[in-house]
Specification:
single chain, 204 residues, alpha+beta, NADH Oxidase, 4-stranded antiparallel beta sheet, 8 helices, globular, binds flavin mononucleotide
Length: 204
């Protein structure tokens, strides 16, 4: 009788612990049967602590090649990726954003305003930001696959950065610190706080 009660209590505690765990970790928790893509998508998180270690150029090229196979509107490929590694460029960037987090390399993603797709019937509708976003997403996921950390950063002084680092016909969309994660790098709470699907997906 006593043993029965003990087991029921223990089972209750276990269920409660599992439920709280699931609640806290949202749907970014690895699950049995996840495909390699889902494993990667869940494994990636914004890295905000980087190791003091350079990134070999051939590894950067592998990462950048993933951006090159991304789709863009009408395949116009208006995106540009500026790879900042020199101390003077990094110092300049640090004046324009607080979000480098000590990464040895920063990628500046922009698009050429003469090359992106423009909607003929909807003035102002153009594809530059969308094109760059999908390219950057490919890059971010490939970096994670190769053991590198990244963070997507839009907190920077756009106009100043464009003036300092880009040709006149480019608009900056995001910057992305990239490097080997520090040993203590871990996901922020935001990584696991996801709305349930029925709050973001509307079936019509
Ligand atoms: C459009 C966009 C802008 C972001 N800007 C910043 C930023 O300026 N600084 C920063 O530290 N993180 C930035 N992030 C990272 C988000 O905070 C992060 O992706 C989100 O909290 C989920 O966490 P996770 O990437 O670890 O899964 C940005 C992400 C996106 C998609």
């Amino acid at each position: 009788m006593m043993t029965n009660h003990f087991f029921k209590t223990m089972a209750g505690i276990c269920v409660a612990v599992i439920c709280v765990g699931m609640l806290l970790s949202g749907n970014t928790m690895a699950a049995e049967g996840d495909s390699p893509f889902m494993e990667l998508a869940k494994k990636r998180f914004s890295v905000r602590q980087f190791a003091d270690k350079p990134v070999p150029k051939d590894l950067l090229i592998k990462v950048l090649e993933a951006g090159n196979v991304a789709p863009t509107a009408k395949n116009l490929q208006p995106h540009r990726i500026h790879v900042l590694t020199k101390a003077e460029d990094i110092a300049k960037l640090d004046e324009l954003s607080p979000c480098r987090y000590g990464a040895p390399v920063v990628l500046v993603f922009s698009y050429n305003t003469e090359e992106d797709w423009k909607h003929g019937e909807e003035p102002g509708v153009r594809s530059g930001v969308e094109d760059v976003s999908i390219v950057a997403t490919h890059v971010m996921l490939r970096a994670a696959e190769l053991g590198l950390g990244t963070t997507w950063v839009n907190r920077f002084r756009n106009s100043q950065l464009e003036k300092a680092l880009l040709p006149a016909n480019e608009k900056a969309v995001l910057i992305m610190p990239i490097g080997f994660p520090a040993e203590n790098a871990k996901p922020s709470r935001m990584h696991t706080t996801k709305k349930p699907l029925d709050k973001t997906v509307i079936w019509h």
